[in-house]
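Input (structure):
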């Protein structure tokens, strides 16, 4: 099994993600520089958190045009599993692989803290080792994490069961996201983006290992091939 982790100028969680995938799960990885294109020979492509292009214009709006994104889009369209964490999620939305957009947090501040999440859909490649309504403790760290989608889009997300993770309640919602949405998938379920950082909660020494279950889900899906 081999994963690709894409690094953009300004990514800052790529090495944390590499550590979890390579050192904890012992899965081979390639670090893919954003100027490269890749062939469809990966089991999963991961887009890490960070401040690609300094978050100029809007988070992810410039990274979306990096050459590697042609390969990411092709990979996703061919059914490849793609995980976007925080800035990675922002880039996936800008690239049109996930619906919606991010606004600046409603308190206009960068927020960095542990939050409680609730699993809304456990039938995805990224959550199959979790249970519906399970509560997770995973940190967030962002300034543009206020997920927005119009009424029609929200209805569609709900109708297709694309809301995968929610902040547990309004008091756990760190940014003002509509409907407390913390993570969504595409209709086909092979692309998943979330604002919390599972790679920062993959060992007990970090205060929580709940994030590890996201990677365990993905790896088990790739081995077993069913949701
Ligand atoms: N850790 C991250 O990926 C968050 C950074 C992100 N660009 C922001 O909204 O602030």
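Output (sequence):
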């Amino acid at each position: 099994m081999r994963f690709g982790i894409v690094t953009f100028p300004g990514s800052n969680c790529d090495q944390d993600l590499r550590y979890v995938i390579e050192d904890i799960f012992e899965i081979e990885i390639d670090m893919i520089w954003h100027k490269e294109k890749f062939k469809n020979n990966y089991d999963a492509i991961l887009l890490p958190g960070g401040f690609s292009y300094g978050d100029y214009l809007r988070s992810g709006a410039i990274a979306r045009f990096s050459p590697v994104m042609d390969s990411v889009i092709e990979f996703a369209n061919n059914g490849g599993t793609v995980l976007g964490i925080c800035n990675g999620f922002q880039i996936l939305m800008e690239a049109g692989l996930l619906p919606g957009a991010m606004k600046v947090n409603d308190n206009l501040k960068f927020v960095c803290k542990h939050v409680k999440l609730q699993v809304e859909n456990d039938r995805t490649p990224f959550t199959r080792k979790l249970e519906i309504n399970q509560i997770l403790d995973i940190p967030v760290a962002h300034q543009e994490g206020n997920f927005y989608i119009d009424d029609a889009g929200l209805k569609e997300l709900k109708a297709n069961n694309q809301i995968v993770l929610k902040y547990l309640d309004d008091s756990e919602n760190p940014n003002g996201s509509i409907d407390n949405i913390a993570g969504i998938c595409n209709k086909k379920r092979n692309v998943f983006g979330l604002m919390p950082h599972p790679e920062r909660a993959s060992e007990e020494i970090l205060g929580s290992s709940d994030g590890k279950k996201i990677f365990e889900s993905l790896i088990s899906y790739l081995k077993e091939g069913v949701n």
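Notes: The pocket of glutamine is lined by residues 49-51, 55, 59, 86-87, 141-145 (CB under 6 Å). The first strand starts at residue 2 and ends at 7.
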